[in-house]
Known about the structure:
By secondary structure, the chain is mostly helical.
Amino acid sequence: xxxxxxxxxxxxxxxxxxxxxxxxxxxxxxxxxxxxDDNDESLDVADAQAxxxxxxxxxxxxxxxxxxxxxxxxxQALAAxxxxxxxxxxxxxxxxxxxxxxEQLLELLNTHDPETWQALDxxxxxxxxALQQMRTLLDEADxxxxxxxxxxxxxxxxxxxxxxxxLAELEEPLPVVDRAVALGLLQVRRAALRxxxxxxxxxxxxxxxxxxxxxRQSELHSRAAEILTDTGARLQQRALAIGGPDAEVAEAMDxxxxxxxxxxxxxxxxxxxxxxxxMSVTEAEAARRLVSCLDAKVSYGNLFEVxxxxxxxxxxxxxxxxxxxxxxQQLLLGHRDEAGVLLRRAWEMAPEEDRxxxxxxxxRLTLHNLVDWNCAELITWGRRAIELADGAxxxxxxxxxxxxxxxxxxxxxxxxxxxxxxxGRVTRSSLGGxxxxxxxxxxxxxxxxxxxxxxxxxxxxxxxPIAAWRGSTRVSLWSYGWLAHARLALGxxxxxxxxxxxxxxxxxxxxxxxxxxxxxxxxxxxxxLRGDIPTAERHAARAASVRTDYQGMHxxxxxxxxxxxxxxxxxxxxxxxxxxLAQLKRYHGIDEPGFWPWQDLYAxxxxxxxxxxQADEFLRPHEALAAERGHxxxxxxxxxxxxxxRFSRGDVAGGRESFESALAVISDLPLSLLRARIQYAFGQxxxxxxxxxxxxxxxSHARRGFLAMGAQGYVDKCDRELKAGSRSxxxxxxxxxxxxxxxxxxxxxxxxxxxxxxxSLFISVKTVQYHLTRVYxxxxxxxxxxxxxxxHGS
Length: 794
């Protein structure tokens, strides 16, 4: 049974306010109303409390020391000390509610029933100390100031001065505002050209709301429902004024939620449907609206809230959309098999005549295949979703969102012109809001894969901010993740790091896993380029921490690990990291040039550990596909790997030709990182072949490129190569050695083991041992120490 619980008063405008905080249901009219909760600047009105209060446990912490600022984990730990289990979503709300204060949290835990902290939309009350402080301040206030405070507490923590003044019935509000501010009751801040009025803390607002009393609350909610300009806020005020389940208001909220969903404004839709569910008169209506609420919340991407509400679905009757919602949730957690089973079950259950439900399920299956990067299936399900939605771009959100993914599927199949045309059809519709965000992100991702990197960076940067689009956190995370990779390709490590830094809090706040490997892959690569290996390893470990079988996620976590090993010169480790991917029965799109550039890295690792023939065999089909597609950065990557193969086989002329063609093919593309990498590899190969003057030129070019982008780790690598080359030219006692022998000596005297020398020179350990034996005999030395002394003394 879906049980009614209270709804929350509307949030006002301002930074951090919920757009449509209708979650929570309405308490019966006869019930006392408890304190408000801000849940990200919104306000909760309490459920009816029992007539006889339940004694709350006294929290006696085992240790007197607490963190200065509690996060969700800290809240859960403090509560656990008292035997109270608090869901993750509510722990986050509580941490915000008390501004991270352990003292305030302990006061709340000690004075309230533990059940207060269980439901997602349960109101969060004020502390007794906050109530006392608010009483004291209000005692000093005149009647107009008290009316202003009451109005502000009714509308939201931060509200427009004009709306608060109208609700408080003040003809000249600004002098009253000044008096309220002077007393410390309210604060003023500006948002663009608007003045916002609000409380210094969520606890202060909750206290002010509770002190109003039930009759005053109901009166102000009724009037606010006529005054506020936002439709959702008016509906919420109506609900709070009624104070109990109401079929008419529930239906109005249901319709408003559907309108928000049609625009892709999933956060607003989810909050509205939750409120509609709580206000529903029948269990069937409540269950249906709760399913819609969870579907919208999953679409928005806040999985902590979804996890908190999911248990309420258990008694709900089985339905196609119920299974689809649960599958959608598993999808965002990265659980491919579970998501696939649930979504296919939903598809089988959906009646043929229910085109809207089937379109929505087909959309989820499209997304499922996008994350898996199964482009053929993505296209199939995407077109099915569009057909079921009657192909009307603005009318059915599932059909439109399928349009925004279809271009990626076509691109992953190598159908570039069709992919660009697909996005052209969507973007020509001049979409705004959340749907525009999806289209912009998808097009940016496609342009990045097609080497249109500067354009891609612009589009991804525009599509990333959630507030600007009122869109989806999932889409924002993908935007930030691919933006970081676009900035990396352009050689702007600082901007790439900024994109990663913006994504990490969203990952933390929402609990999503789908984009997590992508973001941490970028973080690992940035840190590795900078030479910060510990940070790179932490990012790689975090990328690999997700349990998933989705191939797109698997490639990202594999690349994160492999690039850290490569930066350390541990090619055997890089090979181990990538071997599962190489052996996997991959979907075609994984190897489509431009989307997941792992192939040249794998070939280089094979060469480095002496498996040149295997590298040659592996590389050939990827070289052919890159040439067939005319994909320039992929052609350059493959040519660079081919150059290493040729140099390792002693074909200096052929190796030089491969590297030069690699650089030529990207000469007019702004791919600074790829260019520097190719120059560095070319210089390495030339120096080991004894072409020191040419090597110095290429390494110097690479060094300048790495230095400009702040890649200090690779600047240091270039410096070591340049120093070793210079030392070899000046070492007369070693001039009789062959170029290969000289290369071995130069690395041995740097302290490298035989295995490390082999990896660096792309030869086997046995070959290193063979060269060292000949060098010892020729120079009359008996140990590495003697060889080092001779080398440094020469």
